[in-house]
Design brief:
single chain, 433 residues, 16% helix, 32% strand
């Protein structure tokens, strides 16, 4: 296997009372002989602390800035207590995942989560229960180490069992609990990254029971770590929102219309007139609309033109109602139709040739990522009524949810998604066209 450095941390925060029930999790994963050859687990922000010190593997979510948080590939949160995520927690974690990070929240027993940016609830049991894979072909069960049904059945902390309820239907069920077939582990793609939720103390299975003959737990976590940035590969397009002028990225599908905003963040000076060029991939996008943002609502003129396919020009001016120094908000919205590109790929937007009062503003670009959702939920190579039934059962919560159950990409799974997939099967116009 190729050499690979994976930046990891256990996140501590006031929301979990700074609890760290699995302090040696990543140390044990880094030193176990089963670790894939060439892998190196590191904390990029704690190079001055030895790896056998639990402090090496921790990071304070309350204090870390987003720039430093984004250095990590894989972060882990666990506790035994009420965990009421704050608005600041969610802002950081949501951005971290959207930009390609992997977040794992693991119930160490008694963890009661509220106000997380994606809904779910943990429910604990007093006895252990065997587990089963919802889909044995999923890469978490075979990407590095193929796991047998017997190995999967004993994953997690010995002697403890739990499940997940009231979860957002966009989650995909990975593991089921043997007591009543309820979800034990979920996964969700969010932006360019992944969120894992687990109810059976998988961290403690490594941290507290390393003396047991439990290679299956190590293999399972190595599989999960291996798919970070690979099953849903990070794009060569780099999303960075630090500029004083910035383009917000988006996720969409081929054939859809998408609105892309250009925003100002803490304007370093007043701006009475401005001009800039906006570049995009003309083989992927066709511009179809333009709206001035609220920051320039009182300008005498704000217009857009095309220099050539792939390069737009935007400008505006005013007499008195300038963009004020230190102000933030939207400068413009540009609408496109996605006419091409590859699914599961991302394409860059850039700002260039700034003019007049914004000439010295720093800039950052954005990414348009194209998501693959063709209605084939059971991955048998065709769209059939069985796929529509899976989406409908996802809505009813009588079966686990496939990642593309939300066929119309409106943020929730409803019967309309099942109808859309069925119409696709019938050859009629649908949301998947």
């Amino acid at each position: 296997m190729d050499a690979r450095t994976i930046n990891v941390a256990i996140l501590l925060c006031s929301s979990t009372n700074y609890e760290n029930p699995d302090p040696m999790l990543f140390y044990l994963l880094d030193t176990n002989p089963l670790k894939p050859e060439g892998w190196d687990l590191v904390n990029p922000n704690h190079g001055d602390v030895p790896k056998d010190d639990p402090l090496y593997w921790t990071e304070n979510l309350d204090e870390i800035c987003l720039e430093d948080l984004l250095k990590y590939d894989f972060v882990f949160i666990s506790s035994h207590t009420v965990t009421d995520f704050t608005e600041d927690d969610n802002a950081k974690l949501q951005e971290f995942v959207a930009k390609g990070g992997c977040l794992w929240i693991d119930d160490c027993g008694g963890m009661v989560v509220s106000n997380f940016f994606i809904n779910f609830e943990f429910v604990g049991y007093v006895e252990e229960s065997a587990k089963s894979a919802a889909d044995l072909s999923h890469p978490v069960f075979n990407s590095v180490y193929p796991l047998s049904n017997e190995e999967i059945s004993v994953l997690g902390q010995p002697g403890y069992g739990g499940h997940i309820q009231n979860y957002d239907p966009s989650f995909q069920v990975l593991l089921k609990n043997g007591i009543d077939d309820t979800p034990d582990m979920l996964m969700k793609e969010h932006g360019s990254g992944l969120v894992f939720i687990s109810a059976d103390d998988y961290g403690c299975a490594i941290n507290d029971f390393s003396e047991y003959d439990n290679p299956e737990d190590y293999k399972f976590i190595y599989n999960i770590m291996s798919i970070t940035g690979q099953v849903f590969p990070p794009s060569e397009c780099s999303e960075d929102d630090s500029g004083e002028m910035d383009i917000e990225g988006a996720v969409t599908m081929i054939g859809r219309e998408v609105r892309i905003p250009v925003r100002i963040q803490n304007a370093p000076s007043d701006a009475y007139s401005f001009g800039f060029e906006f570049t995009y991939d003309a083989g992927v996008l066709q511009p179809v609309g333009f709206e001035p943002g609220e920051l320039v609502g009182s300008f005498e003129a704000v217009e857009i033109g095309m220099i050539e396919p792939g390069r737009l020009i935007v400008g505006g001016y005013c007499d008195e109602a300038a963009i004020a120094q230190d102000s933030s908000g939207y400068l413009a919205w540009i609408s496109f139709i996605v006419i091409g590109g590859q699914e599961n790929s991302c394409y860059p937007f850039q700002l260039e040739n700034l003019k007049d009062d914004i000439v010295h503003f720093s800039t950052t670009g954005g990414c348009l990522c194209i998501h693959e959702c063709n209605g084939d939920l059971n991955d048998d190579g065709q769209v059939t009524p069985a796929d529509a039934l899976l989406a409908f059962r996802c809505y009813l919560r009588t079966d686990y949810c496939i990642g593309c159950s939300d066929a119309d990409r409106n943020g929730e799974v409803t019967p309309a998604d099942a109808r859309c997939i069925f119409l696709k099967y019938m050859g009629k116009p649908s949301c998947l066209d």
